[in-house]
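Section 3.1: Structural characterization of target chains.
Under the original work plan, the team committed to producing a structural model for every single-chain target entering the pipeline before any wet-lab resources were allocated. The record below documents one such target. The sequence was received from the expression subgroup and is listed exactly as submitted; it comprises 423 residues.
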Amino acid sequence: MATVKLPEAADHLSAVWGRYGDFIADHAEGVYVYDTEGRRHLDFTSGIGVTNTGHCHPKVVAAIREQAGKMIHAELNIQYHQPVFRLIDELRTVVPPNLDAFFFTNSGAEAVEGAIKLARQTSHRANVIAFQGAFHGRTYMAMSLTNSKSMYRQGYAPLVAGVHIAPFPYHYRMQMTESDATEFCLNELRFMFATQCPPDDTAAIIIESVLGEGGYVVPSKAFMQGLRQICDEFGILLILDEVQSGFGRTGKWFACEHYGIQPDIMVMAKGLASGMPLSAIAARKSIMDKWIVSSHGGTYTGNAIGCAAAVATIQAMKEERMIENAAKVGGFFMDGLSELQGRYPVIGDVRGVGLMIAAEFGTPRAPNTKAAKELLHKAGDDGLMLLTCGPFDNTIRFVPPLIVTQQQAEDALNIIDKALGTL
């Protein structure tokens, strides 16, 4: 693809942004992004799992326009506003039923920070356990929990104290069966209690319901249920990070539904408001009511336009049965990737759930980053937008909007097949 001529202003953007491509987007609709050259791109990134309802869903656009004409900024310390109440009513129909109190903020990282503050203050304990491969954000507390790539921590030490990292049951990389990896990791967690992190000093265990940036790894039901049991045994709060796996991405409203567990605290963002910067902490009211008044907050928390967009997002997902579509098309796409794996040994593993799907390149001990990145760029040249993930960037993640059709999924598989044939 010809190199895009960028405006002079591009030289004045911070270089800290890592980039997957350089085309200039003009507009987007549904599962497609259109660049300023008039070229159409099939978006299997959803802005990193954000535009679950598709780009510019009419219901969401209408809600944003209507609220912008009424009130743009309504600080919740000063007054209530109707969109936040409507959003609570909608959320209570989809979140785990034990979560009945909410705090709204701007990003996933901010919600994680808030969730840890809530857990520490209300439990009167200091330590927090996260998992190997986790990505919880890049603000200081969130970064201290994040270990999916060392670059996210590079040059920022010392990090926040009291954070301990446990092994995640990534059975492909561990070269174990799923059941053996589950047993090993649960045992190692108990070993941590005996050696470095006393349970009576541990406020919370935080885990992504499906590992995101760390490689799109789905833990076993037995592992997640075991984790819930350990938290109950020691009075530790279980925080589920559903920032990327929530709002239909896995074929359920939230990935924790696949495991039959309920968290004490849940963090949401990304797909919540179809692209408006809004995130949420949901918790048991008995926990939230202990949070000391004014010990946490923020100027833009619970933004009125963001809340209105989130209400429209949830309603559109229900009306158009997007979650059912995610499960159906996700199954079709997984089958297609597995067929490609059979023909192209460079693909070491295909995994996922719903429309949160990954293909890992290479072997557990010899990750093939080069092949993954070549595939990403070749597919991009043919109009398919993709992302990598995992510590070695050797895993391609497939994250289309939940409105994607089987035909569009087949179009993507054909592009991938063509690219694989040239590696």
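The mean pLDDT is 97.
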